[in-house]
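Hi all, posting the design record for the shared folder.

TITLE: backbone redesign
STEP: 1 of 1
STRUCTURE INPUT:
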């Protein structure tokens, strides 16, 4: 980011900035955008239906919603812990000047872990 002459944090050349947020004009549906939105809505409806069917199947197999929610919560916790472990392995690999892949055997980890 270039600072203005005053050094007060104002940008010079701001005309080159493109906001990642679409303008209201670009959100106005035209023929192609409207059709794409209809397709996306239909796909989401199909996914919603498939998920409802999967939930119904799991409930019919004897699972409870509380059990499923607990399982999902535990999976999130596992993923958070795994992410922290990957971050630590990455930092250790940088310190040692090796790849994380090279550290896996040292800690009895499988590449699929």
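Okay, here is what came back for every position:
SEQUENCE:
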């Amino acid at each position: 980011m270039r600072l203005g002459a005053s050094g007060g944090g104002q940008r010079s050349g701001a005309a080159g900035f493109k906001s990642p947020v679409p303008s209201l004009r670009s959100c106005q549906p035209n023929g192609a955008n409207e059709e794409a939105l209809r397709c996306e809505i239909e796909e989401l409806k199909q996914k919603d239906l498939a998920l409802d069917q999967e939930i119904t199947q799991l409930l019919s197999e004897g699972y409870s919603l509380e059990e499923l929610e607990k399982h999902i919560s535990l999976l999130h916790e596992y993923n958070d812990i795994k992410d922290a472990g990957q971050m630590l392995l990455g930092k250790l690999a940088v310190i040692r000047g090796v790849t994380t892949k090279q550290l896996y055997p040292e800690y009895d980890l499988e590449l699929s872990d």
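COMMENT: The radius of gyration is 25 Å.
Let me know if anyone wants the other runs.
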